[in-house]
Please model this.
Amino acid sequence: MALFSVVFAMTVLSPTRTSSSLVPGPLNTNLQTVHQFPDFTWMENMAVRKNGQILGTDLSAGKFYLVDPQNPNLEPPVLAQFPDGSCVLGIAEVQEDVFYTQTIFGDGYTFNFQPNTSAFWEVDMRKYSEKSLATVRKITDLPAVGLPNGMTLLSKDEGTVLIADSTRGLIWRVNVHTGTSEVVFDDPLLKPISGAEPSFGVNGVRIVDSLLYFTSYNQALIASLPISHEGRPTGPATVISSDVPTADDFAVDGHGNIWLTENVQNTLVRVSPNGQVQTIAGGPNSTDLIGPVSAAFGRGYDDRDTLYISTDGLTFSASGKILTSNGKIAAIDTKHLCED
Ligand SMILES: *[C@@H]1O[C@H](CO)[C@@H](O)[C@H](O)[C@H]1NC(C)=O
Ligand SMILES: *[C@@H]1O[C@H](CO)[C@@H](O)[C@H](O)[C@H]1NC(C)=O
Model:
């Protein structure tokens, strides 16, 4: 997730994401809209079900939507509504069709979060086809987590996930069965830069084999490190690129390329394992991807090379007023790109 205050939008960003400076980018026939949500929908993060449907978290309204790329005209049903005033952030699947997510009370658009109000939830989709309802329950409060942002599966057997704490600059492990949590990684690379607006460190986290990848938002970097089954470092972190401003959430493909959203840059980039950064879609002045926040690959035979991208849809006027807030889920065929 990335949020920025009015002050940041007006004075720090260059270019600012103001609507007057945005125009459609170069025609990219490969980028398609899966679903365009209405105003005040912030598509913060996604998990793809085994059947190809997407669970999308709406940060601003504390909701989960179910988006079906096979039925793009279907109005996405609301799967879960978290308590009034909740912002909902990262998501991870632990057992098939059992997802976990995290909330904090506050207002994302004004970047105002209530300290010590983070919570961890289960969203069980196993009976969804019968009841058209997900079963939602709170597993635990996480009062010591500053701002719970990205989430990734650590161990299916043990029922553990890792979560990125953007304001305290920490990575936590949470056991989804017991609700216990502890810090497993604390490093300067995870820390926010004090005085930056917003002051965010680690943002997205993904584990591939025994490598933990993470972005650090203020430090404009993507890095990886080897970890144990318990999620603890077994070697030093390697910075893959430190040229990814406002680095948000991301997906890693089978070749170790990182498909990364640069939130305030309105850009999706591909970072190769040797650190080359290539723009794939959008751009600082483009309306193609306004505020991209997360990326996830499809899981079906037909769409495993399709990258889904979610956006917050945010633009501001020069005086900092919200002009657009209609997030979306977009798709891009990466197979086509890799063959270029
Ligand atoms: C409440 O939040 C603050 C700031 O993140 C943190 O330092 C403190 O430890 C938290 N308190 C509890 C009881 O967890
Ligand atoms: C974006 O627009 C600004 C203002 O018009 C311009 O200075 C800048 O070069 C543009 N950036 C890109 C990447 O096109």
Summary: Residues 310 and 329 are 4 Å apart (CA to CA). Confidence is low (pLDDT under 50) at residues 3-16.
